[in-house]
Amino acid sequence: MADVVAGLAVFGAVIAVGWLLVRTRAVPADADGVLTRVCFFAATPALLVTTLSRADLTAVLSRSTAVAVAAELTAIVSAWCLHRLVLRRPTAEATIGALASGYVNAANLGIPVAVLVLGDAATIAPILLLQLLVLTPATFTVLDAVTRRGNPSRLETLTVPLRNPLLWGVVAGTAANLGGVDLKEWGGGYPAQGLEMLGRVAVPLMMLALGMSLAGAPRPLRNPAPEEASPSLQGSPVAEAGSEAHAVDTAGGRLPRVEEEPAHGVRSTSQRGAGRRSGLWLAVGWKLAVMPGLAVVVGTAAGLSGAQLLAPVVTAALPTAQNVFMYASRYGAAKDLARDAVLLTTAGFVPVVLLAAALLH
Fold first, then answer.
1. What does the mean pLDDT of the chain come to?
2. pLDDT digits 0-9 by tens, 34-50
3. What percent of the chain has pLDDT over 90?
4. Which residues contact 277 (CB under 8 A, 6 or more apart)?
5. For the chain: N or C, fewer Cβ within 10 A?
6. Residues of the chain with pLDDT > 70: what percent?
7. Alpha-carbon distance 54 to 233, whole Å?
């Protein structure tokens, strides 16, 4: 427990440095965007390659990993049912609400938290693959359908994950591991040294960028005009690094907002506002309480306990990924809910991790 607290204290201190750098104007307010792209396109893929190339893959593909995957899928599906059938939100908004309830920040926060709390970044790789190869294409398919988007480049949209350097970092590291390749034997070891150097800066750069982004983030529960909701988070790493490049740039521009009314009739503005606030609190509660609880239940049923159970619970407690806000912005659905869920779950996940560590470590 003491090790976890110490690790999270270091985590918080580096975030605070990033926040202070922006608040004191030592760096430009948009500096987090540059750091995010450095992490996304260079440092984090290098970290994944070096980590996975020497990881024990039997430990990575374990019952603990299966529990984390099962908890995320269960949380997203069950949250969608509640948003759609209980809160009676339109399908597009229910989809964004479900992602806000379960799509975890696997890269920008998942990797440093895995390093600090679990001691191994490799444990997050299966969750990255689940989100990049399954959840993202499925989300685009559903949102394209319900917003009736005329999309001549649907193939390009659905192949977004294949243009993600994090995916290729996982693939390259895993391939090197399975092929028995020692990266230090290639090119006199210089390529391996370069990868190691880049990988070592990934975690501190992610934390600095997170602090910088929080310094300029809007207050949750505000209702900004559409044009002010996006810029404060565009390119920020409050959650997944680099999501802007892949959720927006490959989309061919933003779409007009499409409001799909529930079948039971037109609702008043106050009713819609109350419904959206209910959706936000449902998403935040589901992400920070229900999803970790699901990990505990599924993990216990799978025979996990102690440190083995801690890994999927910590993964489940990770905050909502920035990708969700980008998808909401792109399709004009539940943007405020997605933005506020990212901020509130980012602020709230540390107590959940500490509680899980106290009970399970």
1. 79
2. 888 888 889 888 988 98
3. 26
4. 221
5. N
6. 77
7. 35
107: which 2 tokens? 């890269």
Tracing tokens 């427990």 back to the chain, one arrives at 1
* The pLDDT of residue 245: 37
